[in-house]
Amino acid sequence: MIWPVRCTVKRVKKAKARVRARSVAHGGEDISKRLSFVLLLLILAATTANGSGGKVKNIILVIGDGMGPGQLGLLSAYARQAPNSIYRQRKNSIEEMIASSTLGVMLTPPHNGLVVDSACSATQLSTGRPANSEVIGIDYQGISAPTILELAAKRGMRTGLVTDARITHATPAAFAAHVPSRHMENRIAQQLINSQADLLLGGGARHFIPSNMGAKKFKQQYPSAPFAVKSKRKDQLNLLAEAKKRGLSLAFSKQELEQFKGRKLLGLFSKSGMPDGIEERDNLTDTSRTTPHLAEMAQHALRVLSQDSKKGFFLMVEAGQIDWAGHYNDVGMMLQEMVKLERTIGAIMRWAKGRKDTLVVMTADHETGSFGLSYSLYNIPKASAPIAPQIDPRPYQRNYNYGDPKVLDKIYQQKRSFIGMLKSIKKLPKKERTVDQLHSIIAPNLSFKVTKEDIKTLLVKGKNRYYLPGHWGAGKKKVVKICDFAAYYTSTSKRMGGVLGRMLADQQGVVWGTGAHTATPVLVIAHGPTAATSKFSGLFQTFQVGQRLISLLPGNQ
Q1: Structural domain contains residue 390
Q2: Considering its fold, how many domains does the chain have in total?
Q3: Of the candidates 65, 193, 458, 462, which lies 20 to 30 Å from 209 by C-alpha distance?
Q4: What is the value of pTM for the model shown?
Q5: Are 449 and 467 members of one domain?
């Protein structure tokens, strides 16, 4: 065991006193001098092992949005057991991080309920204070609470936010904005460019351009942007122009991000959310692509924030689409989102390797989907040769299907997310939303059998028992029927995702309990100096993890 330095110094003083007494008694000083030298070396060793006494200069917080134990288990099952796993020759980076980290468990409730949303959870992480549902940067008493990003900036640290969702989305917003509702993304965008964040990377360009700027005008004014975007604002504010006035450079592509050499950057790489994990997988080696991947954004954030950073930096990186896969009950997308996070953790841990001044904490804001692998009565394997003929010569017969590892390869091979397929269906004129047309969109993108009889379930509608006029998710009188937990599928598209998930569940060996979040506890994984990581061992609520992060800022240690 390595003691903290202050503890070591006390022990050294006591030891020296004993040595002096003995030396005097024996009439000699040589022993005392020699032992003093040895004890000095022990102090230096303890200091080095704890990374300058355990003090932290850089804090990197990685949030897997919606990542519960089931999602981590899915990645590990694929990595370890799938016959064609991409990890057959190595450990995945998340498992490697866990092996050298301190682990804690986090309970995720909001102050005013049992199950949390991302805005509240991120607010509790960023401020270290309890918060109510759906708020951004405001505590349970209605006070705009200073966030860890803002506190870091006041100490002269560099700061940044990275996400594969919109930069105005709940999780990144809660570190640099203060509004009573997560849905106020236009106001959040305005606050972000006026915040103390030096670097903002993600999607969501639609919230930064004036309402009268259509896709054509946007392309004319920002020709380097490889995407078209239509404004979501209701006013004439051009926040891109305002950002430049505030000293932020702009980047719209992977190439512009790579070429950036300055200190302050707003990088917007899509109109809304960024490409999902399936799309990332399919263009991973495409050197001509214009959209950066999450791992690449994290790498460039580390490059930018660490340059000339005498007082260190705070960086939050969000893998936001694990949550989206859970909401749509899409295990194929979920696996790819976990692989995306694994690549990102790998990049971050390679940067942090050997550093004794950096704390990397990975956690989740909540679990989404009530997801798990399970055994069933579906397709029970036939009897095989006796497993222990010397004990019992009868054929080996399992009572249930406990899952075939080959299924994990088929899950990995999914060609398109449910979200992407449902968007294609939504674009069809209503007359063309036929069984044949839907089958032609869905079946080719899956490695599992989907019949036209299955597809019919996507077109069956019934009375919405939870109809609420004007409600964004419950505002339709008729909705797609789902066989169970209908109240927990909070929009038409998520209901369709739930139907698709159940359509494939038997073949995939997976179960879903909701299209929303659960109160399942999540892991906290802390890597860095022992004196810092030891704070994250135990059982905490979300705001208590936030308090521990804030306590490690310079001046608080």
Answers
A1: no
A2: 2
A3: 65
A4: 0.91
A5: yes
